[in-house]
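assembly run, all chains below
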Amino acid sequence: MPSNLEVAAPPLEAAATTMLPRLFRVQRYLQETDDTFTLELGPLDDGAPLAFAPGQFNMLYVFGVGEVPISISGDPDKPGVLVHTTRAVGTVTRVMARLRRGELIGVRGPYGTPWPVDQAEGNDVVIVAGGIGLAPLRPALYRLLAQRDRFGKVVLLYGTRTPEDILYRKELERWRARFDVDVYVTVDRAIAPWRGSVGVVTHLIPKAPFDPLSSVALICGPEIMMRFSVFELEKRGVAADRIFVSLERNMKCGVGTCGHCQFGPLFVCREGPVFAYPRVRDWLAVREL
Amino acid sequence: MSSIDMCAPENTGRQPKLIERAGVGRLIAALQQQGYRVVGPTVRDEAIIYDELASDADLPAGWTDDQQAGAYRLKRRRDQALFRYTCGPHSWKKYLHPPQATLWRAEREGGLFRILPETPRAERLALLGVRACELRALAIQEQVFAMAAHADAGYGVRLRQAFVVAVNCGQAGGTCFCVSMNSGPRARKGFDLALTEVVHAKRHYFVVEIGSERGAAILAALETRDATAEEIAAAEKTVNDAARHMGRTLDTTEIQALLYRNHEHPRWEQTGERCLSCANCTLACPTCFCSTIDDTTDLAGQRAERTRRWDSCFTADFSYIHGGSVRQSVKARYRQWLTHKLASWIEQFGSSGCVGCGRCITWCPVGIDLTEEVRAIRATKYYREPVHGDTGTRSV
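ok done. output:
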């Protein structure tokens, strides 16, 4: 056999490993609201903690049930504990909600683009969150507060359906008590004893204390809420390229090969989930894109 | 004439060789001797499909096909030509991007579980009868998987180790439009050997171009001689004939802008009403790469398995997120597929996702024809005015 016809044994295993989850143990389970919960995870192996940037996500695997993309909601400066907050709404997340301390979960990641926290240096930062959309923004808030003197004003505008749906309530109260961060919470509907604001989160934008000409806005929530938030921010004079949104799409691989997360020409898993608004503006206007 | 210029052979600096009809059988045997599993065209279920070839007796000698929108019929030929048919329902992606693949398994163990990596079977494949449009499709899929954030190296490895015997087309099918997509009918690169079949009343031979050292080495083991100028000219003529007889054409002028600006064109609604969202087009397409994941367990819940399989953007599940599918209507799914294939693919991977093979037209049960769709949209442009001025991703 001529030697130049020999077929080398292909290193196919290398390709397969990118799809292999790393096992993590549930260290703590927290019921946040009626249908949302937080998992604090630690690696089962002795390897390095999973370092991530605010805004990134992981693919979380529940034994035999499936894998879902969930944003990371912990402190990027404390990567020793991997924190995920999610809502029990699908097949996988409902089973995930029954996991308890000591049980295992598979983790692939972190994937995706981060919030531009570093690039916001010297600017006011306006965070607009709707419902569970606060979870992927919390790492950005942690980072902003940890390096507080690098930024101008830090404003959090948060809207949920009802007072019972308010996520991270104790933390919100702590942040609210600080003098260097402005926290405004509103709910769509409420009964007594709620004495706070009622109405959609976009109504908070016109009066929020930030300088539109030197602000960076980070938005996460339902698409309709993000579109109207952008509308209000632009009305105040915030430039489109200083507005960032985080999109959600179906994802099976997280690495740009399964095709599910396509949004026009964009792969949300790879070029997102965080996008500068001009990059997605026209596509957001197309229904059923 | 551009179609003829396009068919001029690339100067590889190697003298084309000649093998007789019997040489094809010897080529298959030589590849098998080198340890390759030879896969290629064969007749099954009234179509020419790709499967393992034991010998040249498995090739579709004397068969051809008649293809139109929504129709495929095998036909007998008067001669015993081996490759005078056009692409059938199968494509080579079934070997390089398998329809189903186990990614890993997991086992419960004392209240916990562990993950058992799956070692994919390494196989030496020889692809026999790869058309020019299919060579382009292989290169396109390689690019798709190479550009993934964590490159899926498996595809590239399988492609590079595969021995590729291309066949230049000697006739064009009713749904072919490779000339429009500039992908055929002549194989230009990406092959080890390229055959051009010439069938005359008394002679049946193949002009062989050599595309690699590996190809030259295999050929050296066969009975060949240098092809004469007349033989080469006769081979050229068949390819030029194919180029002139494309069943379809597609005008790709500024196609990205055309489709991006016509998201709300009424044509999508009309075609959405005809489309059965059956996914035939995506399965037959040689470049469609989308996949999904199946997670399963045994009945006792002790063992789990994770499988990747081909998926289609025509299913409702494909775009499902909490609250429902993003693309509820069939119109939206057809628009996604066509716009991705012909427009956003260029932005994503630097080339069109269409090679002009015509499979999606032939195998559409209701005969939806993408060339006709583009023509209809082009004829009655219905530009959507950009909402906030035209910037961002819309660069065209």
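The domain at 118-246 of chain A is CATH 3.40.50.80 (Rossmann fold).

The two ends of chain A are 55 Å apart (CA to CA).

not gonna interpret more than that til we talk
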